[in-house]
Every structure is written in structure tokens, then in C-alpha cells.
Amino acid sequence: MHDIHDDFAEIEQNEEVPESAPAVPEEERKNLKLTHTAEGLSKILHTVRRFFKKDSMPNLVLVMVLITSITAAGLGLVNAVTADAIEANEREAKNEALNTVFLGQKLDFEEIRPGVYQGRNSAGELVGFGVEVAPDGFAEKIEMVVGIDVMMRVTGIKVVKQRETTGFSNASVREAFLAQFNGQSGPFTLGDQVDAIAGATVSSQAVTKGVNEALNLPEQEGTE
């Protein structure tokens, strides 16, 4: 009977030992590692197919075990190689979203606790906070991000998700309403510092409540 170990030994003998190569960029090194892994898996699967041309129950069971193990190992390696890139992309996307409430500035944000991010400039100086809140609106929760500077003044508000009434859903009307908070410190009271959107009082009240909640969340102590 053909011995599978002989086939694997043949692969090992035929593989050339790579010569020493100069250092390559990190991204290129990762790509080369993935390519070599794929080639190695392809050779192993080819050998498995050669060995299991003869049908038998033991052979079928063994090939299933081998394929499962090889697939798991390959997926694990791909995940390890790409994890850093995925994390970096997610961080960049989050930074872009948070920077929308700090117009004219490019900050790097770090989450200090769930939903609260501190933003620093290129010199490492603390500029402010981006806070995610979701107050209850008329239809459902209004998901929003509030920008707050180190003086605890609102720098901007971005509504991320909402399904409110027509008055609040009108982008131009909503933006004019949100602009009332900019540059101001809370707590805010609807009808006092802030005028409600006509026909969307509940939504206006929800946003005002959310902004006040956001102003209470950052902890400046120990963040300088």
C-alpha cells in the first residue's frame, strides 16, 4: 500500500531552502508569507488527492480530518496576518467620524471608556472629546456624536441615525437646530438657550437631553 508519509517526505525533499534576502517592507513581508502559505497548502492538498484515489472508509475519514485541520490552520494564519490591518482601518474610520464634530482639525482619538473618546492633535495635546449618545426620540433612539472641547463647550453635533418626523428629518432644518449648541456650555434647556424645531418638539427635546448627557460623560482628570 502506498504510504502517505513517503509523499510528504518527497515534498520536503523537493522544497528549496530559500537564500538569505534583504529586509522587505512589513506589508510586502505579510503578502509573501500568505503566498508561501497558500503554495504550501496547495502542495499538501495535491498529495492528499494522489493518496486517496483509492476509495475506502478509513481513507475518507482521514482525508476529512486532514482537510479540516489544514483549513483551520490556514484561516488562523490569515487572521493573524490581517488582524493589524483590520484594526488600523477600523481606527481610521472611527477617527474620520469623530473629526466631523471638530471642524477644521485633524485629531487622533482614543477610547477611554465605552462611547467616550479623547482627541489629541499631532503634538499630542488634548483638544477635546467625542461622545456617542443615543437619547430616546419620537420614533426610536437618535444616535449621535457630540464634540466637546477642553473648556466643556460643544464643538459640533452629528446625527448618525434617526427615524424621526418630517421636521427633524429635514437636513437643513436639523443642521440649523444643532448649530445652536456650538460654542456653548450646558446644561441646555429647550425653549431657553435652544429653540425647538417646529412640529418636532419631542425630537428636539431628545437631542437637548443627549447633549447634556454627553457633557457629563468626559472625565478630564488624568487625561492631560
Describe this structure in words.
- The chain is α+β, with helices and mostly antiparallel strands and 224 residues long.
- It is 48% helix and 15% strand.
- Strands 1-2-3-4-5 form a 5-stranded antiparallel β-sheet.
- The relative contact order is 0.09.
Sum this structure up briefly.
This protein has 224 residues and is of the alpha+beta class.
Mean pLDDT: 77
Q: Count of helical segments?
A: 6
Helix content: 40-55%
Structural class: alpha+beta
Q: Report the uncertain regions.
A: 220-224
Per DSSP E runs of 2 or more residues, the count of β-strands stands at 5
What summary fits the major beta sheet? 5 strands, antiparallel
Strand order of the largest sheet: 1-2-3-4-5
% residues in beta strands: 15-25%
Which SSEs are present, and which pair or pack?
Blueprint: H1 4-14, H2 26-51, H3 57-99, E1 108-113, E2 116-120, E3 126-133, E4 143-149, E5 154-161, H4 166-169, H5 171-178, H6 201-215
Antiparallel strand pairs: 1-2, 2-3, 3-4, 4-5
Features:
224 residues, 5 strands, disordered C terminus, single chain, alpha+beta, five-stranded antiparallel β-sheet
